[in-house]
Amino acid sequence: MAELMIDYITSLDGFGSAEGWPGLWGMGGPDYYAFLEQDGREDYTTLLGATTYRLFARFAETGEEEMAEVTARPKVVFSRTLTEPLEWANTTLVAGDAVEAVRAMKQDGGALRTIGSPSLARSLLIAGLVDRVRVVVFPVVNGATGGDRLYDGWPDVRLELLDSRTLDGRLTLLEYAPTVLDGPPGA
């Protein structure tokens, strides 16, 4: 069975982006970029929601962000608003239920990862399909400028730490095995 990982970058207060801040909060460094390069050599299919797809496809088209690795990788976008043909290479559109589609993809084998896509990630977590959650925490608080609150609407989740490390002396990579709870432990 395929393994599904949610993959986020976040501010300390749980935002996936912030208005007016540069990409990666201006804090990408050699360790982080080496981690991304090594991670990019792994074989997996990227799962995207429509909003993240639109953003990343624009980055790929304009060159605003380096997207060659993601462009080359197989991608599946879940959307009822996008239509084929999709212009971003190696992308398949699924207009039906994302949970059922991903459940079938997991049976077929091969590693799966979300990137961004908080609504998609949340629905897959709630359905019990997520095997790992990986988060790179950037040491900023975006209380005034934050966007894309990543954990809103999540159920209670217990996380078992699988890996942690510091990148560039300031970024914290955390990898967890999630267990969705019905409520607080002991309730």
From TrEMBL:
<dbReference type="InterPro" id="IPR002734">
    <property type="entry name" value="RibDG_C"/>
</dbReference>
<feature type="domain" description="Bacterial bifunctional deaminase-reductase C-terminal">
    <location>
        <begin position="4"/>
        <end position="171"/>
    </location>
</feature>
<dbReference type="Pfam" id="PF01872">
    <property type="entry name" value="RibD_C"/>
</dbReference>
<protein>
    <submittedName>
        <fullName>Dihydrofolate reductase family protein</fullName>
    </submittedName>
</protein>
<dbReference type="InterPro" id="IPR024072">
    <property type="entry name" value="DHFR-like_dom_sf"/>
</dbReference>
<dbReference type="InterPro" id="IPR050765">
    <property type="entry name" value="Riboflavin_Biosynth_HTPR"/>
</dbReference>
